[in-house]
Amino acid sequence: MDKIFKLILVAVSIVLGYLCVQSILIPIKFNEEKSFREKVVIARLADIRRAQVEYRTAKGVYTNSFDTLIAFVRQGKAPIILKEGSLTDKQLEAGLTEKEAVRQGIIKRDTTYVSILESLFGKNYPIDSIRYVPFSNPLTEFEMEKGELTSGAAAISVKVVEVRTPYTVYLNGLNRQEIINIVETQEKMNKYPGLKFGSVTEANNNAGNWE
User: Fold this and answer.
1) pLDDT value at position 142?
2) 163 strand-pairing partners
3) Which of 184, 149, 151 is CA-nearest to residue 166?
4) Phi-psi map region of 37: left, alpha, beta (phi>0 left; psi -120 to 50 alpha)
5) Which backbone phi and psi does 86 adopt, to 5 degrees?
6) For residue 156, what are the β-bridge partners?
7) Which terminus of the chain is less hemmed in, N or C, by CB atoms within 10 Å?
8) For residues 163 and 132, is the Cβ–Cβ distance under 8 A?
9) What angle, rounded to 10 degrees, do the helices at 66-75 and 2-59 form?
10) What's the pTM value of the predicted model, to 2 decimals?
């Protein structure tokens, strides 16, 4: 009986030791994978932001459609001003403007157009994939909203956009309890439980919540 009891104690000790080690390793491994995935998701969000800013510059508004945004980037052209020559300090002091200098042929300014896709990302960038959240399974699109806010006493209209994805999408497949824990932590602090840039409730200059 003593031998059996000792064997049981050894087995229990091994199990408890294993559980203790796992309780330490699981959060470490989770945070390592979470950090890796977030770097990739943030890079994708930054690309969407660049595309939205370019769209806003060209159209005056943001879009809440990835089909529209992708078509704009793929097919659109961006103007580039080629400059040859510049005004000297003496010419500026004399009141010569750039427009007049161009008219007189003192300096040259030519406008050419380049592909938005190439200028923003490079011609081989897989623009069709920009809509999808990396690591999502099944493949999931980012949530994207646009809006319009009134700012200041002068009631200035401000166009806004928000693009986001929750932890549960891009951390899918990792430890379920760890995901629940970070979601609860963010919600207790009244913060979005995931990654996003911009806001449809306040003008924040398209800031990312990771910045």
Assistant:
1) 98
2) 144, 197
3) 184
4) alpha
5) -150, 160
6) 151
7) N
8) no
9) 60
10) 0.78
